[in-house]
Amino acid sequence: MTAIAAAEVIVTSPGRNFVTLKVTTADGVVGLGDATLNGRELAVAVYLADHVIPLLIGRDAMNTEDTWQYLYRGAYWRRGPVTMAAIAAVDMALWDIKARYAELPLYQLLGGQSRKGALAYGHASGADTEQLFDSIREHLDLGYKAIRVQTGIPGLDSVYGVAASKAGDGERYDYEPARRSASGRALPVEEAWDTRAYLRHVPTVFEAVRNEFGAELPLLHDGHHRMTPREAAHLGKSLEPYDLFWLEDCTPGEDQDALRYVRSQTTTPLAIGEVFNTVYDFQTLITERLIDYVRAAVTHAGGITHLKKIADFASIYGIKTGFHGPTDVSPVGQAAHLHLDLALHNFGIQEYMRHSDETLEVFRTSLTFEDGLLHPGEQIGLGVTIDADEARKHSYEPAYLPVNRLLDGTAHDW
Ligand code: CS2
Ligand code: MG
Description:
The chain is an alpha/beta fold. The protein has two domains: 4-105, 2-Layer Sandwich (Enolase-like, domain 1); 110-378, Enolase-like C-terminal domain (TIM Barrel). It has twelve helices and 18 strands. Strands 4, 5, 7, 8, 9, 10, 11, 12, 14 and 15 form a ten-stranded mixed β-sheet that branches. It has a three-stranded antiparallel β-sheet with strand order 1-2-3. A three-stranded mixed β-sheet has the order 6-17-18, with no helix packed on it. The chain binds D-mannonic acid and magnesium ion. D-mannonic acid is lined by residues 38, 177, 222, 224, 274, 324, 326, 328, 351, 401.
């Protein structure tokens, strides 16, 4: 029996907020789990500290499946981002512990190495075409072989996914969307949105990018939940000449039926699911082959145990993975993705925004990024440690994701 002897929640903010669960067995073996829910971090921290950790002490750390079922079914109130992020953190920590006892890198317990490394895509963005081209060149120079393209929209001050400015090292760390409002109070920034302007502008941007960078470079785009099924079908059709790797979150994913119409109208590959929390959120999308990639994140979809079930379910329908990996997935969560990416047969692509140097002072990771491929490294477990002294230097600051409104003030998806 490898009893869980202690567990603690570490909230730290090295440039942005992270919540990490640290579990320790009676033998002193430590496992880490990412519990970061961008803009609602403390809800998960309290859920873990007050409602989960007391149930963990004394349980066998090796029982990852039973612990997952115990926390999911035993809570009665199930699913949703807070509950599933808490379960995810416990699950990642127990898998980390399991691999540490086995003295193996975690991927060896998930099926071993199915590929040399995980193809990564980076986030290029620009308020205008010139800035966008600079950003694409920066990412090509950084070694990315696939690139997400987000652009400013004429007439709109700030748009999702467009970094305000460089933050050093050529990488645009300051893309982090969770911010405090100009007043300094912890209020969401409000942004304006115009779907018609967006639908007119985006095809012209991809035309320019293809003309400048050629037909081969895999290009991705994130619609970020903002379109109706008709608008999404219209954009999908208008982007077909530019042969995207995927169009992401073209509509709010919870309306799974909407994708039937979009799918019937366009051959542009579709990716959905970063806000999803269980396999049930994907059920129609997968069984009716309405998407090409599942975008779930290990932190938001119940951890390694459940994310692997989602991936395996998707594989039966020929659907690949494209796990969510912006900087609000911590280095712990990103490492969990990479171990799954290395082992899963139906791996597709891995989102990778490099964490800031400040973050990597707190979280020490064995991740490597070479020739466009990510690898979690050969250290045992997840291959990530947290420096508690460094973590203590960065106290939590409330930060909220923006609220989006149409030009007439109507609340809209951000
Ligand atoms: C985005 C995310 O990376 C993506 O695909 O959708 O950056 C998303 O905006 C953030 O995770 C929100 O916290
Ligand atoms: Mg996205």
